[in-house]
TrEMBL record:
Protein source organism: Lysobacter defluvii IMMIB APB-9 = DSM 18482
InterPro entries in the record: Cyt_c-like_dom, Cyt_c-like_dom_sf, Cytochrome_c550/c551-like
A single GO molecular function term of this UniProt record: metal ion binding
Domain (Cytochrome c) ranges: 43-127, 171-280
Lineage: Bacteria, Pseudomonadati, Pseudomonadota, Gammaproteobacteria, Lysobacterales
Keywords, sorted A to Z: Electron transport, Heme, Iron, Metal-binding, Transport
Record bears the keyword Electron transport: yes
Domain of life: Bacteria
Name of the protein: Cytochrome C
Amino acid sequence: MNKRQSRIFAIVATGVAALAFVGMTLHSHTRFDDLTNAENITPEITHGKDVWHKYNCINCHTLFGEGAYYAPDLTKIAQLRGEAYLKAYMRDPSQFYDEQRHRRLMPTQDLSEVEIDNLVKFLDWVSKVDNQGWPPRPILVAGGSLNVGAHGAGGGAARGQDVRPVAAGNDPRALGEHLFRTAVPVCTACHSLQPGVTLAGPSMAGMAERAAQTIVSPEYTGSATDVPGYIRESIVDPSAHLVPGAMFSAEGTSFMPNTYSESLTDEQIDQLVAFLETLK
């Protein structure tokens, strides 16, 4: 290829690439409203976005993979944490860390209740945006891993979806362990299986023994009569009994999401109970 041919090739290639870029940009703009559920944007959500910018949250966190990469990506945080948890965290992040052990880095921003409410609404709206599996990297939240490409806005163990691992066969305990790592919101985002490792929620190590002690305690406020029943109740109705003195609840509401009865089938919940019952 001589210089003239090289010059023509470069010009043509640049022109084709420019046309493709402009075409894709125009196409994207025609899809933005549908992908972002723009019809659901309220003044409160808009104010929540302003709060996000006002307090420079992007200096540490990312949305859709864009930001400082210093703290976890929050694109799907509203699908991993309940509203009560997010509000309590924003009020006082220090309550969620032992500064001597974890070296708390999240500053207390002194947000007003209105700012907190609207920021949570903004993050909830963000979590429902069809982000086409982006960013494609795993997101770490409190020691758990969520692959956005796989779990996105509607991924994971949705009702009726087969999440059975090939190696697990029909053993409900093996299927339950798989669900523990793949259900949405993913259990490992808040719970460790290691003794003494407390994340956003308590460690599941010794779950069966604690359940047996709890249901015979005079302070127990739930309706379960045995260990499997208590574990099931903890999954489908986490606010039925709040452990006295624990930091995993606020104003009589557990931080744990109460949506598993909708996102999991009864059989899947039974499998999850079977697995957790083995953690003695």
